[in-house]
């Protein structure tokens, strides 16, 4: 079992009991996506005002809704191409908003230049991870590899907020985001060699 299979198995075990209840409630997958977006905006504001513990809780809850929308779409057979695009778009907005909340908090602090630099690295790297996958799939290749997908990034950031160890969390994120970008590029390059592209 590889890392992707482990992620899917864990996601299924977490989401399945909740999805069965949601499926009977009549709520739509897109509604969950917009709840995720709203929670992320609130989390960004809370983080920007320095309330890190509450921000960490909101990041985790938002991440749960991100897990549930796709699971609910599959469970209720409401999966659509637009829903997939909307989900991916909201994921990018949510992650950027949370990191920008941190950036707003640290920007006025003269001694926080390292944190600011790390936030920028994580923000750019996170977008690159998603972009490489989307671009690869756009030319017909698979690209779900990598140590730090969105789930891992959400968990590490949330833990950092909850225990007020933001710098450590940002260092971990920056290192593993860069590693994941390289992993995906190498994976795509190998596919290109095999297929002669």
Brief rundown of the structure:
The chain is mainly alpha-helical. 82% of the residues lie in helices and 0% in strands. It is built from seven helices and no strands.
Describe this structure as you would to a colleague.
With 197 residues, the chain is mostly helical. It has one domain (3-195): Four Helix Bundle (Hemerythrin (Met), subunit A) (Up-down Bundle). 82% of the residues lie in helices and 0% in strands. Helix 1 crosses helix 3.
Topology:
Layout: H1 3-25, H2 29-48, H3 52-75, H4 81-106, H5 113-138, H6 150-162, H7 166-195
Helix pairs in contact: 1-3, 2-3, 2-4, 3-4, 3-6, 4-5, 5-7, 6-7
Instruction: Give the total of beta strands.
Output: 0
Which segments are poorly predicted (pLDDT under 50) over 5 or more consecutive residues?
none
Radius of gyration: 17 Å
Total domain units: 1
Helix percentage: over 70%
Shape-level CATH architecture: Up-down Bundle
Give the overall shape, derived from the CA principal axes: globular
Mean pLDDT: 90
Keywords:
0% strand; mainly alpha; 7 helices; Four Helix Bundle (Hemerythrin (Met), subunit A); 197 residues
